[in-house]
Amino acid sequence: MSLIITSDESISIDKNLEDRLHKIVELILIEEDSRNSEINLRLMNNKEMQALNAEFRNKDRPTNVLSFPNEDISSKFTNNLGDIAISCEYVEKEAEDEGKTFDEHIIHMLAHGVYHILGYDHINNELAMIMEKKEINILKKVNINNPY
Q1: What is the value of pTM for the model shown?
Q2: Which residues face 103 on adjacent strands?
């Protein structure tokens, strides 16, 4: 199982955070019986995120995280589950506003994105509770308190 991280040249994260991002994905994929899978993570700024959000969701503004499940025929051959985009700029501001650390918040946003790729959603209260419980439980395994 693997996480492939790419970023805009203006974005950099330290080795400890990179290791923690890999760890959360590993734990989720083990928990969800997708051990041999791969996920792409793109770390970006608000401008790049706004372009993605406008193109794929018709919302002309940045957001914290977007998930793109791989629904292509290649997924069964490559085991690539999909792509996740995270705006570090947005997450940093959101973390500050919510009194969280950047590292813990971006780990949460990655976990949130992975669960979306795996088919979980929060389009209604019942589904949101299922997804949030999964996030809370997996984050607890990496010593991150309930983010909700």
Answers
A1: 0.94
A2: none
